[in-house]
Design goal:
Strand content: 25-35%
Largest sheet: 8 strands, mixed
CATH architecture of the domain at 12-130: 3-Layer(aba) Sandwich
Distance between the termini: 43 Å
CATH class of the domain at 12-130: Alpha Beta
Shape: globular
Number of helices: 5
CATH superfamily of the domain at 12-130: Gcn5-related N-acetyltransferase (GNAT)
Number of strands: 8
Length: about 180
């Protein structure tokens, strides 16, 4: 018998979704959704094609006791949707500040789930941060709207390497005081 690590992080309720810690049973849906090129190319770190075991490794890192990033599943089962429709995370950077990142599966794009997740995370502020930072690729204005609708302010332009594209991509950077 193998015991599973229990991750201690709060469950955060939104109007239609629940932000909850990842669990091993999420590996299949995460692997299925992140294998989509459209999704991978809007993130910094998801490769395309997705290598075997990548989703399992991601979930294992998210469930580890010592981790660099706190990850929640966007669980839509309470709204009649899938148990995983996306992921949202906080990566502590320094002095009570975190970088917020998220993705929503393409099947659920333009339904307001990312906005709901970001706004719920801001309201809950589970790590007790004073500021959140975020960046989005400039060819993803929908993700930029998610941030501005959640009260994030534009800081400036930058660039980041996208693994799926194999290229450096221009970004917009945002911050939010909590």
């Amino acid at each position: 018998m193998k015991l599973e690590t229990v991750v201690t992080q709060p469950v955060i309720e939104g109007a239609r979704i629940l932000l909850r810690p990842l669990r091993r049973s999420d590996e299949g849906m995460i692997g299925f959704f992140t294998a989509d090129r459209r999704l991978a190319e809007m993130t910094v770190s998801i490769p395309h094609p997705l290598p075997p075991g990548a989703a399992a490794a991601f979930v294992a890192r998210a469930m580890a006791g010592e981790r660099a990033e706190h990850v929640w599943a966007m669980d839509g089962s309470g709204d009649g949707q899938a148990e995983v429709i996306g992921v949202i995370s906080l990566r502590p950077v320094e002095r009570a500040q975190s970088e917020i990142a998220y993705w929503v599966a393409p099947a659920f794009w333009n339904a307001g789930y990312a906005s709901e997740a970001v706004q719920a995370m801001v309201a809950a502020n589970p790590l007790g941060n004073t500021h959140y930072f975020a960046s989005v690729f400039q060819d993803n204005p929908a993700s930029a709207r998610v941030l501005t609708n959640a009260g994030f302010a534009y800081l400036g332009d930058a660039e980041a390497f996208c693994v799926a594209r194999g290229a450096t991509v221009p970004t917009w950077t945002y911050s939010r005081r909590l």
